């Protein structure tokens, strides 16, 4: 069991957490439920990355052991995930479908930011349930479509887990802290490279999209610099390895100049629009850092463009089990 997940042993304990924690995410499961076991590692991974003491709490509730709680919230399908804010249910996902749980993750990320002190500053771009912070203005006629990122499938290679946060902080809705002091992996809201200055970021999308601009926010520090040379690869089914990227023709190659960074530490990178018309994924390869630095830092990544209709996601053969009578 992840240390970030609390196992509920009584109704009083659960009621207490609903009162003490701003956000609570509950996994209602049963020990006899195969799909519950299948999705459990996904839930625990999310909890490890997004759980915050007294702010965002992840719990598991055995419906056989806690029948009163299951009855109170009308749990009929295993597993069922409930999202609470200030003790009130605001979202429900039924079944062991990682794609459905993905939609809850986006909501959790927003609620986690709200629990930490309110919505981010800045403008525009809609995310599930609230505004996204943008470090630069949006091109006329286009919107922030970062909420179409499949957060659970994002992947970052060569990240220093000890010095910074995980890949999901790059798509967090709020304004980055810009802090420079070393923090634990669970507290930092930026990422840094590990063994050298290169990073490889895989961004899968829930929709086919037209990408117009890539916005990157990077607060340079003494230990980590801003990215300089970036290569983009469209529609890869998976993340590229560093050797594979070197041998693959990039869809676009960009050198970010010092003058491209604004006072919000954000660079707006215009894309060759004709090459980014039907995008299902994007790989961002940070090849080098400014001034030949040995480490590079990323705080936020925003996708600007137009999102199409969400693709029909593949369904599991059995997404859940009915609770026995």
From TrEMBL:
Keywords: Disulfide bond. The gene is txl1. Residues 134-323 form the PITH domain. The keyword Aminoacyl-tRNA synthetase does not apply. Residues 1-115 form the Thioredoxin domain. It comes from the Eukaryota. It comes from Sporothrix curviconia. Pfam families: PITH, Thioredoxin. This is Thioredoxin-like protein 1. Belongs to the thioredoxin family.
């Amino acid at each position: 069991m992840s240390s970030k997940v609390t196992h509920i042993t009584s109704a009083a304990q659960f009621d207490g957490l609903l009162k003490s924690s701003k956000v609570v995410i509950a996994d209602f499961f049963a020990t006899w439920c195969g799909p519950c076991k299948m999705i459990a590692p996904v839930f625990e991974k999310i909890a490890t990355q997004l759980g915050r003491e007294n702010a965002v709490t992840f719990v598991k509730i055995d419906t056989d052991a806690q029948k009163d709680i299951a009855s109170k919230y009308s749990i009929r399908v295993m597993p069922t995930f409930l999202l609470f804010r200030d003790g009130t249910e605001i979202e429900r996902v039924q079944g062991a479908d990682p794609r459905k749980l993905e939609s809850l993750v986006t909501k959790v990320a927003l609620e986690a930011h709200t629990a930490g002190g309110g919505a981010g500053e800045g403008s525009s771009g809609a995310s599930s349930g609230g505004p996204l912070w943008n470090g630069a203005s949006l091109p006329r006629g286009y919107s922030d479509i970062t909420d179409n990122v499949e957060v659970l499938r994002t992947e970052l290679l060569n990240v220093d887990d000890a010095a910074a946060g995980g890949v999901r902080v790059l798509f967090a809705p709020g304004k980055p802290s810009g802090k420079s002091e070393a923090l634990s992996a669970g507290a930092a809201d930026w990422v840094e490279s590990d063994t050298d200055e290169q990073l490889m970021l895989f961004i899968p999308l829930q929709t086919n999209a037209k990408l117009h601009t890539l916005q990157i926010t990077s607060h340079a520090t003494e230990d980590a610099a801003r990215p300089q040379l970036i290569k983009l690869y469209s529609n890869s089914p998976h993340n590229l390895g560093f050797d594979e990227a070197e041998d693959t023709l990039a869809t676009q190659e960009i050198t970010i100049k010092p003058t491209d960074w604004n006072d919000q530490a954000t660079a707006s990178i215009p894309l060759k629009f004709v090459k980014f018309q039907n995008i299902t994924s994007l790989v961002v390869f940070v090849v080098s850092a400014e001034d030949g630095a040995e480490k590079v830092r990323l705080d936020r990544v925003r996708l600007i463009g137009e999102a199409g209709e969400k693709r029909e996601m593949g369904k599991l053969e059995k997404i859940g089990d009915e609770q026995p009578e």
